[in-house]
Design goal:
The protein has 22 helices and 48 strands. By secondary structure, it is α+β, with helices and mostly antiparallel strands.
């Protein structure tokens, strides 16, 4: 047995037992010698045990255990292109069957100390099985997100799951076609950590395949000019088909024939270039989509047979061109849902003023920065928060703060706090506060969230690294933040049992409640009835509240589900409304719908868990009278210097408003307000953009304004003030995709002197299609020329926002973009055997075949250096310390020496008698 210490300096604490022993001998002098010595020894041993505990004493064992982790490339290219392999047993197996068969052989023939794990590498790396003695051969590896290959993450994840007490070995099964990361660097890192990386190449070389390699469009083009697209197609053999081009979803006619719109092409083996000219209409952003459709030669049992092509996923591409100039105004109409009527009144006013206006219902709001770049101003008119997904709100925030776009929020019964915007991502942008004075708020709602946290909630959402439980927790937290501080809120989680996560009470600390909700973890079965009984018990105690509401979320079938609808009906009879949210297809949809119907609530079916945040907001949003005041009032001029009121005298009455509070920041200008000081028209600068809040509306409450002569002038001034300023003059920019990297180039010219502008600072942010922000800084590579580059990890459109600065002064931002072609996973027509050899060499491993992937080779211990397994002695030392502590206390508190003393023996009694006689004699002598 070898003992080692993690922090040996703590062993010096054991020396303290020596002075303690001296002090103990003096302090315990009234005790018998036996008790005194035992007390001192016990105290010294206790100190020594504590020193060992603090020093981290561990028992070090030598072990020759081996953990093999198979990293299986299960991306789309391997699944589609890899040929079948004929094994030595005469059976021909596809790539999925070959990997499964190899895993089965490994786990069957391994030894007692041999552990086997599996990691799948696709768009994201996932642990399919931790290294263990359990069976792994029957796992379904394929079927995830096959759109990309990240071997780098797969190798690093494999290293991370190798138990410390075993020697790790990694086996990579792949075609070598990585689209993300650097697998060679990862293999080199693993080898440095003592983990060998072997490689099983999956080779192929396709002939009948066409790949659309790239679509190049000019980064910028003049308004209503002609843009030339350069389309590169690579063919493995001769192919005929049709080339189709779309601009912003509309078909571009490439054929003069009246019955055809595509261009007929005949491809030869190798690289083929097609040039297409497209006339650009008015607008700032022009997105192009290109598709090659091979001719269908025949149909067989496997489907269509194409002319010189097999896989269609790699036959598409895209690009976009940006046109400098003014953008349009986007009016998101929450009144008429985009239809002509009251909701389009502002659109008519702005069009008459010469502005370009597009009207869309809330569901049509752009979700990406590239789409938002087409606009200079976004107007949300009576739009509730649950109609705008949180991811879209984040993009709107970037559009305003970083890209200089404008935002106007117009009131109504579903806007501002009444629309659930309190606690939202967009709330900090508004020039008004949505926290109302306490005098205006009385408790009107009591909401109890009853959340399923059974084991099935740990499922990952397709295309995401998040589980259903995580998304449900975040959605609940978002709903809690949207409620007022005096609203009553509670959360109950249920699996086999019901637990109160947040007791029902005033929502005074929404942040703390949200954190508790986010800590909910899945596990167990599904039993909703006890949770509903607990909810009823809590809501009975707040019968004075106007609205009592239970929101139930579940993704499975509950035990005793036949009793749930009747129970919800009983709750409704007590004035408690029940709404239900069914997640996925495994939940009992009929029961959940019946619960909501009998519970007089609303039923929602979320096939996609990503929609849960909007559904939760919709479920808890109620029209609360304190948040909207519908009575005529006269707006008062608050800040006469506001540019929105230029040339405006007194203003007519308004018929109502959505209540808000004044922001205290000095940069806010409150142009109009009520007699009580509540904001009506406020504005401020938010980052690079401007935001305006008008808490009344533009039609029903503002009916008195429509006939007012200043109506058009005020709203036109609002639109022009909030709209984005023109992009940087004298700045030309371009973004070029080069393989898996994007290069941004900006040329700065002084328009007065026509000389390059040198010495500028050029920070930039690159936004990926998913919304991920990548920071980069452009360096000056030539006079007035600034360049920088960043890696690309996703397919689709990238937007680069460059924020030039001169001597600390912020210049107008420059926006440019480029597209990474879709189908890059399928772009290569052959496996990358050279890369696989490089990975094996960097990882200190070998190139193997499926047949060589056996237990004898993988778990071989020849030349293996035994690993050291540190087993902490903490538990044993704690038990010993507790025992010694009890002995120490007992020795000092219990006079156990009486039971062993010699006073019960004759010799002891004789000694005591002699002692007494001596004492008596001494006393007589003194007398």
């Amino acid at each position: 047995m070898e003992i080692r210490f993690e922090q040996p300096l703590w062993l010096w604490l054991a020396l303290a037992s020596l002075p303690l022993a001296v002090v103990g001998l003096i302090w315990f002098r009234t005790m018998s010698p036996g008790r005194r010595i035992s007390a001192v020894v016990a105290r010294a041993v206790l100190v020594a045990l504590l020193a060992l505990l603090l020093a981290g004493a561990s028992n070090v064992r030598k072990t020759q255990g081996v953990s093999v982790v198979v990293v299986a490339d299960v991306s789309g290219s391997l699944a589609r292109y890899a040929p079948a392999t004929r094994w030595a047993d005469g059976v021909t197996r596809g790539v999925s069957e070959s990997i499964t068969h190899a895993l089965t052989r490994l786990e069957t023939d391994r030894g007692v100390e041999d552990l086997l794990g599996v990691v799948s590498a696709e768009a994201t790396a996932r642990v399919q099985a931790m290294p263990s003695r359990a069976s792994v051969g029957r796992r379904e590896l394929f079927g995830g997100d096959e759109s990309a290959t990240d071997l780098d993450s797969g190798l690093r994840l494999a290293r991370a799951i190798v138990p410390a007490e075993t020697t790790g070995r990694v086996v990579l099964v792949s075609d070598g076609r990585q689209t993300r990361g650097d697998a060679v660097a990862a293999a080199r890192e693993l080898a440095g950590a003592g983990v060998r990386v072997d490689v099983v190449p999956v080779a192929y070389d396709l002939k009948d395949e066409v790949v659309l390699e790239s679509v190049d469009a000019p980064p910028t083009a003049g308004a209503e000019s002609v843009a030339t697209l350069r389309i590169a197609l690579r063919a493995g053999s001769a192919s005929t088909g049709t080339l189709r081009v779309e601009r912003e979803g509309s078909v571009v006619d490439l054929d003069p024939a009246p019955d055809r719109t595509g261009r007929r092409v005949a491809l030869t083996p190798g690289l083929n270039i097609e040039m297409v000219q497209v006339r650009l209409p008015a607008g700032r952003v022009h997105r192009f989509g290109v598709t090659y459709e091979p001719d269908v030669l025949a149909h067989d049992a496997g489907g269509a047979v194409y002319a010189g092509d097999t896989i269609l996923e790699n036959n598409t591409g895209g690009a976009f061109t940006m046109t400098p100039g003014r953008g349009a105004v986007l009016l998101v109409d929450g009144v008429g849902m985009g239809e002509p009527g009251a909701g389009s009144a502002l659109a008519r006013v702005w069009r008459e003023a010469g502005l370009s206006v597009e009207v869309t219902p809330p569901g049509g709001i752009p979700t990406g920065l590239l789409e938002l770049e087409r606009y200079d101003l976004v107007v949300l008119e009576n739009v509730p928060a649950d109609s705008v997904p949180e991811a879209t709100q984040e993009q709107l925030t970037r559009f305003v703060q970083e890209m200089g776009g404008g935002l106007v929020m117009v009131g109504g019964p579903n806007s501002f706090a009444a629309g659930g915007w309190k606690g939202s991502t967009l709330e900090p942008l508004l020039p008004v506060r949505l926290d109302l004075p306490q005098r205006l708020i009385v408790p009107e709602t009591a909401t109890l969230f009853v959340i399923d946290n059974s084991g099935s909630m740990r499922r990952f959402v397709l295309g995401s690294s998040r589980t259903q439980q995580e998304i449900a927790n975040d959605a609940t937290a978002l709903a809690i933040r949207s409620l007022d501080a005096k609203d009553l809120v509670g959360v109950i989680a249920f699996n086999n049992r019901a637990d109160v996560v947040v007791p029902l009470g005033p929502n005074v600390n929404a942040k703390s409640s949200s954190e508790k909700v986010r800590d909910i973890s899945p596990g167990g079965g599904t039993n909703a009835l006890p949770a509903l009984e607990l909810a009823r018990e809590q809501l009975r105690g707040v019968a004075h509240v106007k609205v009592r509401h239970v929101v139930v979320l579940s993704d499975g079938k509950s035990r005793k589900d036949a009793q749930l609808p009747a129970f919800c009906e009983a709750l409704a009879a007590e004035g408690i409304r029940v709404s239900t949210i069914a997640v996925g297809d495994d939940s009992s949809l009929e029961t959940m719908a019946k619960m909501a119907t009998l519970g007089q609530g609303a039923y929602y079916h979320a096939l996609n868990p990503d929609m849960l945040p909007q559904i939760f907001l919709k479920a808890v949003r109620v029209v609360r009278s304190p948040l909207v005041r519908e009575e005529p009032f006269t707006p008062m001029v608050g800040d006469a210097t506001s540019p929105l009121l230029a040339g405006v005298g007194s203003v007519p009455d308004l018929g109502g408003l959505a209540l808000a509070s004044v922001r205290a920041e000095p940069t806010v200008q409150n142009a109009l307000q009520t007699a009580e000081g509540e904001p009506v028209l406020a504005h401020w600068n938010a980052g690079a953009g401007r935001v305006v809040a008008f808490t009344s509306d533009a039609h029903r409450w503002g009916e008195g304004w429509t006939a007012w002569e200043g109506y058009r002038g005020v709203w036109t001034q609002i639109a022009r003030y909030a709209s984005r300023a023109p992009s940087g003059e004298g700045m030309s920019a371009a973004a070029i995709v080069d393989g898996a990297r994007l290069r941004v180039r900006v040329e700065a010219m002084d328009e007065t002197t026509q000389r390059p502008r040198q010495g500028l600072s050029m920070p930039a942010t690159l936004y990926a299609p998913s919304g991920e922000a990548i920071e980069l800084r452009l360096a000056e590579t030539a006079p007035g020329v600034y360049e920088g580059e960043a890696p690309l990890r996703e397919e689709g459109g990238y937007v680069a926002l460059v924020r030039p600065m001169a001597a600390g002064e912020r210049l107008p931002p420059v926006v440019v973009g480029a597209s990474m072609a879709a189908g890059s996973e399928y772009a290569a027509l052959s496996s990358d055997d050279a890369l696989l050899k490089e990975i094996a060499a960097a990882g200190g491993g070998r190139l193997l075949t499926y047949e060589e992937l056996n237990a004898a080779a993988m778990f071989d211990r020849a030349g293996l250096t035994p690993r050291e397994a540190w087993v902490p002695l903490r538990r044993a030392l704690l038990l010993w310390a507790l025992a010694v502590l009890l002995i120490d206390i007992g020795t000092r508190r219990v006079a156990w020496d009486r039971w062993t003393s010699g006073r019960f023996t004759p010799r002891a009694q004789e000694s005591m008698a002699r002692g007494a006689a001596r004492t008596l004699g001494a006393l007589r002598e003194r007398a």
